[in-house]
Amino acid sequence: MKRFSIAMILLAVIAYVNVSATIITIPEDYPTIQQGIDAGVDGDTVLVLPGTYMENVHFLGRNIVLGSLFLITGDTSYISSTIINAELPGHVVTFQDCVNENAQIIGFLIKEGLWGGIYCYNSNPTIRNNRIIENFGIGETGGGITCIAAYPTIIDNAIIGNSTNGRGGGIYCWYSDPYIANNIISENYSGDGYGGGIFCEYSNATILNNVICGNSMGHADSYGGGIACMSLSNATVTGNVIKDNQAVWGGGIVCSGFSDAVIRNNIISDNKAEYGGGILSCFEAIPTITNNTICKNWAVSGGGIYVKWASNPIITNTIFWADSAHNKTEIYAESLSSATLIYCNVQDTVWPGVGNISVDPLFRDGADDDYHLMSIACGDIADSPCIDTGDPLILDSLLDCGWGLGRVRSDIGAYGGGDSVTAGVVANNPQLPDEFTLSQNYPNPFNCETKIKFTISKPDRVKLTVYDLVGREVRTLINEYRQAGIHTTVFDATGLSSGVYFYRLQAGEAVQTRAMVLLK
Predict the structure, then answer these.
(1) Reading across the β-sheet that carries 324-325, which strands appear in turn?
(2) Residue 26, SS3 per DSSP
(3) Which of the chain's ends, N or C, has fewer CB atoms near its CB within 10 Å?
(4) What is the pLDDT of residues 467-476, one digit of tens each?
(5) Residue 376 lies in a domain
(6) 3-state secondary structure string, 335-383?
């Protein structure tokens, strides 16, 4: 068996790497993925060469990295050419027995599982950079990914065309708190009528920066075409595009059964439902809805949002525009329910409450789904009336043509807002992170390119430099004045050899250094 030690590359300076870790290559060392996992121990990597593997893979409680050649090359073509296709009825990949975030599956095409694509039970694995397609869930399992009493990290995947006769066509969460970020969750289907894209019950999911589109359901009484937050599911839904989903109740999002979700900085558009085209709030739910753009949704009642059964969403800095409904209302609330709006822009009516307006928001190109606000300073022909008309206690956390445009107070809509600040703060000095941090690069180890993120608390000259193992400077990535806030840069290591490198950030008197591994 070939077992290649990677201890010399990672060295003792990278404390999180087990010096006994090895790489097992499939099919060179073993003919099947499962045999490679059977032979591995915690910390090992099972590296899979391109091909189709007809298997049902089980991690057996081991914290192993399972990866295609994408893992070491960054070449996305290896994702589609390294296929795990279920051989027998059951999930294609199973995590259980308390594996942690070091159990990882990276860079595969996962398809045609009869009970669903990936199953996470009592486990916290990392699932990233996979294509999870055309899997079919049965009963209480989702089509693409099932999470039961689990806390997985689900990032940078394409979860497309999965279905279930139960709930959660794309992702099913029950008593789970997954971190779901930067995924495409599209064209999934729930036969039981709950959560075409994502279903959460008793789960506090973090749903961040995903594209959730074209998901649907076949049940006559369906809930949450894009996202369904049911039964005490206080999800945080931030920075997503939620588009073209369909349901009877809540085409884009539904919050029901005391689920007080936080919904902020999302584009919610072109969704369809009988009740609540964009959002449905019901069963004593009190979601917090801040800095969203809710446009071009359709419903019989409440094109933008429908509120019923003793619910009272709190809605701030949000645009409701070009939504349509048979009852001709953007916002519809039944008896015993209400919606509290402040500093919102609602088409055709100035909604009762502080700071609400009703005026064309002047999107840059709403017809082509560009909902940024026009700004003369950014080359547009006019200034949007939503600039600087949001809640005066909220200031835009970023100031550029892609985000906040107002310097006095927050903008209304998905591309504005920030942290709450106290009255009396200088108007042109938005509250920004009060810390200096240098994050671990991602991915790490990496091949050729990796991203480095850092935060500075005040405007300052920033220098970000890369050194080799003996302290020689090999690259200067940044050497310029930067505004306060969160910044990301890409390190292209073309021309450098494999090994350990250090990256050092200096802003004023503050300095931090971290290590990273280039593995070619």
Answers:
(1) 272-275, 298-301, 324-325
(2) strand
(3) N
(4) 876 667 899 9
(5) no
(6) CCCCCEEECCEECCCCCCCCCCECCCCCEEEHHHCEEEECCHHHCCCCC
In the block, tokens 């050729």 appear at 448
Domain boundary among 107, 134, 161: 134
CATH number at residue 446: 2.60.40.1930
Phi and psi, residue 233, nearest 5°: -100, 100
Residue 6 has pLDDT above 90, yes or no: no
Q: 10 Å Cβ neighbour count for 515?
A: 18
What's the pLDDT at 520?
67
User: What single string gives the DSSP state of each residue in 261-325?
Assistant: -EEES-EEES-EEEE-SSEEEESS---EEES-EEES-EEEE-SSEEE-SS---EEES-EEES-EE
Number of CB atoms found within 10 A of residue 357's CB? 16
Write down which residue in 109, 134, 159 finishes a domain: 134
Nearest to 43 by CA among 68, 12, 6: 6
In a domain, 421, yes or no: no
In a domain, 327, yes or no: no
Query: Is cis: bond before 445, omega within 30 of 0?
Result: yes
Predicted TM-score (pTM) of the model is 0.79
**Domain ranges, residue 511:** 437-518
216-238 confidence digits (pLDDT tens): 998 888 999 999 999 999 999 99
Number of domains the chain is built from: 2
